[in-house]
Amino acid sequence: MINRRKYVDELIKRKWNGRIKVITGIRRCGKSTLLFELFKSHLLEEGIPEYCIISIALDDDVNAKYRDPDELSKYVRERASDINQKYYVLIDEIQYSISKNELIQKDAPVRLYSVLNGFLHIKNIDVYVTGSNSKLLSKDISTEFRGRGDVVKVYPLSFAEYYSIADMEKVDAYNEYSMYGGMPYLINLNSDEDKFNYLLNLFEEIYFKDIEERYTIKLPSVLRELTSDLCSSVGSLTNAHKIARTLQSTKNLKVDSETISTYLSHLTDSFLFSEALRYDIKGKKYFEYPSKYYCTDVGLRNVRLGLRQQEETHIMENCIYNELIVRGYHVDVGIVPVVEKNNMGKRTQKNCEIDFIATKGSKKYYIQSALSMDDKLKEKTELRPLRTVKDSFKKIVVSKSYGKSWLDEEGILRINLIDFLLDENSLDR
User: Fold this and answer.
1) Which helix (H) or strand (E) holds 373?
2) Which SS3 state, helix, strand or coil, does residue 326 take?
3) Quick one: DSSP state of residue 259?
4) Do 115 and 72 meet the contact criterion of CB atoms below 8 Å apart?
5) Phi, psi of 243 (to 5 degrees)
6) Which of 32, 87, 182, 429 can bridge 156 by disulfide, Cβ–Cβ 3.0-4.6 Å?
7) Secondary structure (3-state) at 239
């Protein structure tokens, strides 16, 4: 059992706050274990009687009838009928209580939300639910729950979590993690073949099936090719029009950009991918397109490509992006204009990219991901965008080639990749 203290503490501090606690994240990232084992263990250790913990796993056929919101409401209210007792209601995979009709019709009222809002009026219950689709839950929190929903986002194991149980040297652990990622069940598997097959089956038996059944996908082959394309081009600028043209020319698939845009939404709503928008640092505005997409788990990305495209630069960039997201940062891609002179002395301006702008509250960091900084030309290229930004927010380069971290004469923090991943406070050194 992995002690995911960060997430347990997030739930503990939200106890009895008068809101619905909504735990979201990709399927098989550990939400059920967090709720039914780790958090429940905490409650029992606090002296809560087991009969006061009402647990319902809606993805279990035994509980199929409770997928009907009215039956779910009736069951919870009957179990929590003693007004002199306090009850904890733990409901897993709540999206099973939302019908296809409610999902497809954008303006259709969702009965489940009325039931959950109804629970808020029962003063002796504290409600926690998990879901694997942001469109069904977290995107509706502010409207459907009228400000009384509280989201806790759960991710696959971070590198620090993985390393804490890997029983390996740091470099070996990173090599394994950057190959197979952090889906928790992998800790039970020893062989490369078993790990590969497990991750491969997640796509076919869970992720694709979930999307196809929920949204009645008419072009499943396009969904699969789109997934592979995003995995192959992770960290590269793209948009629906570009992807549609690529699939038409390379795969001979007849698909329009509108369909691709819809399928992109399904993949991000299912937490398989995350979109990073481009931000004009000087103009202080977002670009409408193109964007970058990153895989929620690098192991899923690698296996989807058959372990054939192991570009270490892109994998490292994806790992850094995921780590920033896990730490609670909002992450954009930075664009900054840079003026250069050619051999004739003519000045030209071009847009350069800062890999990540990480923002949390009043904190902001400009971060470059650089596999190696041994070459002077490479160093100049990576540092140029950071040097161009004239505000006072911290500038950082993360690289595998660095040893101990240091602050250079321009105030740019140089930090080793593994040190960055293992130290949650590494950006504030």
Assistant:
1) none
2) helix
3) H
4) yes
5) -65, -40
6) 182
7) coil
